[in-house]
Amino acid sequence: MDSPQRRKRKQQARIYKPAYAKFLSVRSLTVCLSFFVFVLFISSDRLPIHKGVSIRPVLRTSTLSLLPAFLTGNGDADATSKSQYPRLVVEGRVLMPDHLMLIVSTKLTPPVDNLDCVYYDLVLEQVVLKPVLSVDEYHQFKSIVRCHLPPLNFSASVNLRGRQRGRLGSVVVERRDWLLRLNQSVVPSWDRVVYEAVLDWNAHTRNVVVFAKGLNLKPHREADARKFRCHFSLTDFDQHHRGLFVLTTQAIAAAQETVRCLLPRSILNNPDKAKDIRVTVGRRGDDNVEGADDAPLPSIAKLQNVNSHQGKSNTGKYELCACTMLWNQASFLREWIIYHAWLGIERWFIYDNNSDDELQEVIDELNLQDYNITRHAWPWVKTQEAGFSHCALRAKHECKWLGLFDVDEFFYFPHDRGQDVPGPNSLRALVMNYTDSPTYAEIRTVCHSYGPSGLTSSPSQGVTGGYTCRLEAPERHKSIVRPELLHTTLLNAVHHFRLQDGYRYLDLPESKAVVNHYKYQAWDTFKAKFFRRVSTYVTNWQDDQNKGSKDRAPGLGTEAIEPSNWRLQFCEVWDTGLKNFVMANFADSASGFLPWERSHA
């Protein structure tokens, strides 16, 4: 007969062995099915493999979420019925400078209540729940969820859970589930990750443009594309930078944070089925040495098709569109949109760089008044050049011309007495003169920088009516481009793009058109610039670097301390030209109010 101790060991084995075996069977089944689907995908007669594409099958552990049921909201019927979020699949995670960002395959509508971030203590082997920081729409049908950074000794592999019965705090997890959770992939940091991948798809081009941090390319030069390759996988790339059954193609252009690659033939023939394919970039090694390629970058990017207007002819496109990137500037958007719509801009692309003000509400209100505005969540910090490249890829399917400028910049047509006053749609009429030009693909306009003009608070009538004193000499320029004629690298300096060979830019004379840049506003508004800058290659205000740069305010240090004479600075010429024009064309004849004034609501 068995001893009591032996019977106890057998009983424990019967308890734990089935769970372990079940995990192995699930993993094996997942790998086998993935391989079968992938082989069908690339070997179909209708999907021939591209001549320049290599296939590298790699087996790896599945990274499917293996959380206890009560953490995912997929437990018993009673638990599921009490959860507002019965099934949340986290597609990717990345450690941002001040938060952890999760990409979720479900569209969540903010504000989101009763949703927690799930943190795993590596020492005490317990789970800690904290409410999410914020939620945002992402790629139309997905969501971004922002969580607090993991505390010390906690895993960055954070998950999500719909709160049940108000439970919040820490919970002990069975060791079996804990060990499975620790098998998850390493979470990439923001300074080294592929973050977007866009299909560039039209009659002349069929490539993928990949956006990545960590390439360390020179800011304003084209890189040698032969040094890079793109890798396509059905699964995440793990901590060893491997994916499940990888296709590899050659890069054909590279600059700044973008790499353009050829597409595998299987994707060329089925672009609508490419949305779940993950993409990364790696440096190419010696072709004669096996395994010489550098490890690809970690990736949270899946192929995205931004062309929602396939087959749209050039004659059916908008004549003039505008793109901007902003952070917490909802209070200035109404004036910028209403004014420039009067000048003829027909379509708006707003790239929202993590705003937490009333931006969406303002856009919704303007769209109810028939302004054609799309907000695009762009959570990537200090990526303005990449964001404008991304916007150009979207806009070229809808727009003949695209203006790239900020919400504190206003186009203006100076005129003397006796001259014709510019009327509605005058900016659109200007660019239409060059739409079919065989020479010009960009129109540049110089900028006048305005100061606080003696004000200590933001003017109620808006920047065009409030700030009237500027520097005498113009600074830099802003551009309107033909997005179909940009260089394949999408190389840009925010103010302008590199153009295709054979095309050049047109400089408008200052007497014909200028951009009023309300750069140095009242201190309460201006000091927000100290939070961070959006350009990749411009030093943040608080950093002790490049103090003499034109991107800084002359004489201003690295701290947000108001100089004693701030309201009188940057004032050399009193110029009321645009103010007078705005009051003559936009003010209500009875009240004198402008359409964007708060008191006019």
Q: What class, by secondary structure content?
A: alpha+beta
Strand content: 15-25%
Number of strand segments: 27
Helix content: 10-25%
In the predicted model, the low-confidence regions spanning at least 5 consecutive residues are 8-27, 41-52, 55-81
> Major sheet, described briefly?
9 strands, mixed
- Rg (C-alpha, Å): 28 Å
Overall mean pLDDT:
80
Number of helices: 12
Overall geometric form: globular
Q: In whole angstroms, how far apart are the ends?
A: 89 Å
EC number: 2.4.1.-
Subcellular location: Membrane
Enzyme class: transferase
Membrane topology: Single-pass membrane protein
Q: How would you characterize the overall build of this protein?
A:
GO terms for molecular function: glycosyltransferase activity. Its EC number is 2.4.1.-. This is Glycosyltransferase family 92 protein. Its main location: membrane. 36% of the residues are buried. By secondary structure, the chain is α+β, with helices and mostly antiparallel strands. The chain contains twelve helices and 27 strands. The chain is globular, with a radius of gyration of 28 Å. The chain has helices at residues 4-43, 69-72, 77-82, 175-181, 265-269, 330-343, 359-368, 384-395, 426-432, 463-466, 523-526, 577-586, and strands at 54-56, 90-95, 100-104, 115-121, 126-131, 134-138, 142-147, 159-162, 170-172, 193-201, 206-213, 228-233, 246-255, 258-262, 278-283, 303-305, 318-326, 347-352, 373-377, 399-404, 409-412, 440-449, 469-470, 477-481, 504-507, 514-517, 573-574. β2 and β3 form a beta hairpin.
